[in-house]
Amino acid sequence: MDAQKPIVIGVTGGSASGKTSVARAIFDNFSGHSLLLLEQDSYYKHSDLPFEERRKINYDHPLAFDTPLLHQQLTDLIARRPIEKPVYDYTIHNRASEVVHVAPRDVIIVEGILILADETLRDLMDIKVYVDTDDDIRVIRRIKRDMAERGRSLDDVIQQYLTTVKPSYHQFIEPTKRYADIIVPEGGRNTVAIDLLVTKIRAILAERGLRE
C-alpha cells in the first residue's frame, strides 16, 4: 500500500437505506481523526430547465450526476489537493451558486446511491460498502425525510418513488451490490459490521503510517 495515501471508503445502497448512519458511525469511531465525508448528492448536474421540468428528472439515474467532476475532485483529495465542492439545493432541484472549500484528510468517506456504478470511482476506493435495507423500510424513511427536510408533499414523494426511485433502484443501484467488499444489513444498527469496518480502517491507517 502507498504510504501516506488517504483511505477511501465508499458507502452505498438504496435511497434512505441508512448510508448516512453507517458513515456517521465510522465518524464517531474516529473522533478527532483526520476524516471527511464526500456526498455524491452534491454532484447532481446543474440544470437550466424550468422548475416544473426539473421536478420530472430521474435523480436516481446515473446520468443525473456529474461523475467526471466527482472523480476529479476525489482524485485531487487523494493527491492531498483541496477542492471546491458543489452544493445541491433539494428545494429547487438544482445546484446552488455557492461552493464549499474542502481540505484533504487521511480518511475519505464517499457516500451515495451510485458510487459503485462507475468503474473509475470504484478503482479509487480501498473499501466498498453496500448498505442493504428492505424496500418498505426505505420508502417510509424517505417519506418522513423528504417531507420534513426537503419541503416535499406526501403525494409528490410517493409519485417520485413509484415512477423513478423504485425502478431505478432495481435497475441501477441493487446490481452494484456485487462490487461491494462488505454488505451491511440494517445500516448503522449493525454494530458487528461497523466494528469490522473500524478494525479494517485502523489496520490500513497503521500500514500507511497515518496516525490516529
Automatic annotation (TrEMBL):
It catalyses: uridine + ATP = UMP + ADP + H(+); cytidine + ATP = CMP + ADP + H(+). Pathway: Pyrimidine metabolism; CTP biosynthesis via salvage pathway; CTP from cytidine: step 1/3; Pyrimidine metabolism; UMP biosynthesis via salvage pathway; UMP from uridine: step 1/1. Its main location: cytoplasm. InterPro entries: P-loop_NTPase (IPR027417), PRK/URK (IPR006083), Uridine_kinase (IPR026008), Uridine_kinase-like (IPR000764). This is Uridine kinase. Its EC number is 2.7.1.48. ATP binds at G13, G14, S15, A16, S17, G18, K19, T20.
